[in-house]
Amino acid sequence: MAKFYVTTPIYYVNDRPHVGHAYTTIAADVLARYHRLLGDATFFLAGTDEHGIKNLQSAQKADLDPQAFVDRQAAQFQLAWDSLDITNDDFIRTTQPRHKKAVENFLQNLSQAITPLGNKAVYQGEYEGLYCTGCESYKTESDLVDGKCPDHNKAPELLKEKNWFFRLSDFTEAVRKVISDGTVVIAPTARHNEIVGLLDQGLKDVAMSRHLDWGVKLPFDDSQVAWVWFDALPNYISALGYPDDEKFKTYWPADVHLMAKDIIKFHTVIWLGMLLALNLPLPKKVFAHGFFTVDGQKMSKTIGNVIDPVELTAQYGSDVVRFFLLSEFAFGSDGDVSVVKFKERYASSLANGLGNLVARVLALAAKNPDELLVSQDGVWQKTLDQTWSDYRTAMDELQFHEAIGAIWRTLAEADAFIETNKPWELFKNDQEKFNVVIGELCEVLRHVGWLLLPFMPQTSEKILTALGVWSAEKKLAYQHLSTWTPRRGWRLQKVNILFPRLES
Ligand code: MSP
Fold first, then answer.
1. Whether the Cβ atoms of residue 442 and residue 490 lie closer than 8 Å to each other
2. Which member of 35, 99, 149, 192 is catalytic?
């Protein structure tokens, strides 16, 4: 049996979960559900990044003890993911003892590692630089625009510290090798090229410790804590019980690390450098999606255009939010969302599209359910095979909007098929043909139900329940679900309308 391990970034808890966090997390959930559908042994990890100055300062602002603050905030992320039907198998928090223990072990091993050029991987030095708390990282002058961090629109502070350093510079060629020979795929290509550009400049050593009270103490120097990224990146293995747990042996390396493009640098150069230093297996794919704007503008509290995924879900249901976010633009590109587009999409693709087709077919099917026929050589077989094949290619490439496109093309063909065959007339004049036309459209909907499962789990269950097959099929293997299944009669059940029309 194949295994599949997918991760989201662990999010800072200084803020509430927003639609950007939801986007990555929904995408990871879609992948996890898809791989479970294929029968893979799947592990999906989400979590929160609770150390670092940013969280500490927010706790102080809230006048709370840092642990109490991060407990409260982490719970909001867990609730948000529940409301979006996220099926993560574990939720790692960097303040958990299991995480701290694994990170200590990891850093201890790192401190003893030797680089490919024969140097100690960890050394002590002094560092002076500009630190952006927003990014939780040092910046060079060339990273800044008008003296400010462009991502956080804030001037970084000058910091001078005696630190421990990770000799990343010695790993430049080793990292280059694993990303050029395809051991680690960085996708999309633009991101791969961006990282190659960084390698061409040569990697710089990084300060891996901070003088703070809030963090994981370095096992070899308890006067300092690990810099938040050196604490955060190992979450992907601490959650699996690095170094000894069976889970670690089963699931590591990750099949996909998912994130937005802002943090790909940390996940490629630094994370790969650390793993190479410890001779650990490397993630197979690091995929960075694009950034959202809302009505053409960057999402920001000051502008007041922040979309709250939890509010949106409360209003429209999680399936609609999941569908909208993943169908609107290509996963990997930047894209713009807006409430107006959201409503248009709801009306055209869901209420008038999918919802209308399902209601139409089921209403016709209810006229003669026991006699509906799915024949051995149904006309739809080829189309559905093609749909599954396009869908799988798209899903394997993380092109979610194309996978959704393949489903909606099938829906459009089904609509056209109804128009051509006029089943309401057949019912009066040619019952035999009626039974085949509608019987096979029910089979089309059965396939659509399964195709939709990763994206819209509630809708999928409703469609399959309406067709009377959910209980019997939910434990079946993918091969059975995705093949044409002849039958006589459908045991239909009544379900509520899928997507009520919105009041204007
Ligand atoms: N804690 C680190 C990650 C550590 S992973 C070992 C961090 N956290 S974060 O809370 O700042 O979240 C960054 C991630 O949030 C992005 O990579 C992305 O997944 C998501 N997004 C934040 N803003 C976004 C948009 N405007 N658009 C799309 N995704 C966005 O960095």
1. yes
2. 149
